[in-house]
Amino acid sequence: MLARESARFEEALKLGVTIRMLAPVLAEAFINLIIFLLAKSDIKSDQRLYQDIIRRGIDVRVKSLHINCNGFAKAVATDSIEFKAFQTLMNKRNDFLHGNVDPTVLRYDVVHFDYRTIPVFEKRASFGELALSHRLIQVEPERALEDFEIVTGLVAIIMECLEPKYREAVSALMRATSPGWRPKDGRVGILFPEHTVHSVLELEE
Length: 205
Known about the structure:
The chain is mostly helical. It has helices at 2-38, 41-44, 47-54, 58-63, 65-68, 81-98, 103-106, 127-132, 141-160, 164-175; strands at 111-114, 118-121, 179-182, 187-190.
């Protein structure tokens, strides 16, 4: 029983870490996609300027989208709950990447020792629970899904700032499974429709 539960915790750990690490990457990829698609012509034509914008802090990139890109009817509301949650998410990602350790955050239980060697836990739990409960600290499924929702919220407030025709174009491209690029003029488009038709021609003998 404990082996089966341990395997489940191990799988949950892998999924939780993966989602929490990839959620910020997904957000940054979306922001860079917006810049790539909608950057003003003078920025696109100057690679040094374009690369400078892409390499700026991610909060600066979001705050200047309406300045550097076409199609924005207004600036992104950086005082919104969604943007503040996104900044917190990025800070947590940095803690993960740089291995910042905070015992007060990673604590999952309190243990006392009787006669110096006998552990006495404040929480009543089985040995199995004691052995496995700490494995998902900071990568619980609920937290991982919350990270994904934060990214979804950021995408939503950025899309809301776009003029309708630009919003529709970006949405269509994000849904596309066959995007295309024409190097001659730097245009991005969708190569093939999402629907397919299969037909068979039967010949009478």
